[in-house]
Amino acid sequence: MKLLLVLTLFFHSLLSWSEADRSRYEILPSDPTTSTITEDLFHTVINRVESLYSSEFAAQGILVDFNADWNVSYFSAWAHDDNPLLYSLNFWGGMARIPGLNEYGWAFIVCHEVGHLLGGTPMNSLELYAWGSAEGQADYFAGAHCLKRYFTSFPHQGEEIKLSHKIENQCNENKYCLNSAKAAISFSHVIKYLYRDTPNLSLETPSKVNPNGSILKSYPDAQCRLDTIFESGKCINDFSSLEQWVCENSVGSRPACWFKN
Question: Does 1 map to a domain?
């Protein structure tokens, strides 16, 4: 009887803790959140990005399934190789409900997953993921290519993100740069929510990480990811195709905190 009581109290405590701390690993559709991504916008952004790159997927001879489930409460978005010519891009609603996320950040997340398939080199150096662009390259593609297409075709209509004068001056009225800065700030809420011990992030304090070689088997550090998104928006190369869209050694190039020529 004593053992049963102890076990009962243990599981009651565990359930109470889990309910109180459930937001650490899931957000239900019914949970309150400051994210402005509704179920409709969740699907709309995904469908828009899919439409923007359908011709590129076809030109490369690959089939891509966009799988989106608003009702899944967990935090994930990922690309997967189902076979050499079939890939899937997958999105769970919990990710879109992370507090602080808006259309800028959600469009970036969707664009990042497309970047694994169309971002080109450098590729992921892990054997199981060698079919896809490295994480830093997917971030760069999202800002230098995909977000530009997205907001050119679908101008943002929601609440704006206020940028500091310093960041606005760096963009010098370049709308692509401004959009990438806003996407980086929105996405920073995701990073800080998922990784609670992340130091303060700011576009005004670039990463000082200086690796010996390109980071190709993991994510760059959090600040470096924001730097990549922001810098990619400054690239002035043509994003109408997948040819010569990367800025190699000029304004808008990939930051040294993860990429080495």
Answer: no
- At 161, give phi and psi (nearest 5°): -100, 125
Query: Residue 144 has what DSSP assignment?
Result: I
Asked if residue 84 has a cis previous peptide bond (ω within 30° of 0), the answer is no
Q: Which domain holds residue 199?
A: 31-232
Residue in this structure with the two tokens 């599981």, named with its chain if needed: 11
Angle (deg, nearest 10), helices 175-194 and 103-118: 90
Q: In what order do the strands lie in the sheet with 86-92?
A: 63-69, 86-92, 77-83
Helices (H), the chain: 2-20, 39-59, 93-96, 103-118, 135-141, 147-153, 165-171, 175-194, 222-232
Q: Write out pLDDT tens, residues 159-198.
A: 899 999 999 999 999 999 999 999 999 999 999 999 989 9
Work out how many domains the chain is built from and give that number.
1
Residue-wise pLDDT for 121-156, tens only, equals: 999 999 999 999 999 999 999 999 999 999 999 999
Structural domain contains residue 251: no
* Domain annotation covers residue 256: no
Q: Residue 252's closest CA among 194, 181, 149?
A: 181
